[in-house]
Amino acid sequence: MKRSQWGLYAVAVAILVVGLVWAGVPAGTLLLAGLVLVCPLMMFVMMRGMQGHESGLDDRSAPPTGDAKGDERRQAVHRSTHE
Question: Nearest 5°: CA angle at 18, between 16 and 19?
């Protein structure tokens, strides 16, 4: 979804809401449906910006923890997986 298309989506949603109210759907039902759809729609919009990025930290970018044995274990695992 491109930012230039947001206005078209807003107009489409407004037409849909007006049409549903005109058809006799109670406003409370529309409000409840809107609240149910907010979370997945927000996640869709937020996650679209993460395409092409790594989703987690690997051992090379993880900061040292101060635990010498834990840091040594991570380095040993890193060496064994990249040899």
Answer: 60
Return the amino acid letter for 19: G
- Among 6, 4, 3, 11, which residue's Cα sits nearest to residue 49? 3
| One-letter amino acid for residue 79 of the chain | R
CA proximity to 78, closest of 55, 54, 56, 62: 62
Listed ranges 2-6, 39-43, 50-54; the one with the highest mean pLDDT = 39-43
Q: Strands, DSSP E only, in 1-83?
A: none
What is the pTM (predicted TM-score) of this model? 0.46
Q: Which two tokens stand for residue 29?
A: 């039902």
In three-state secondary structure terms, 51 is: coil
Tokens of 67: 């635990």
Residue 17 contacts residue 25 (beta carbons within 8 Å) = no
What are the residues whose beta carbons fall under 8 Å from the beta carbon of 17, sequence distance 6 or more? 30
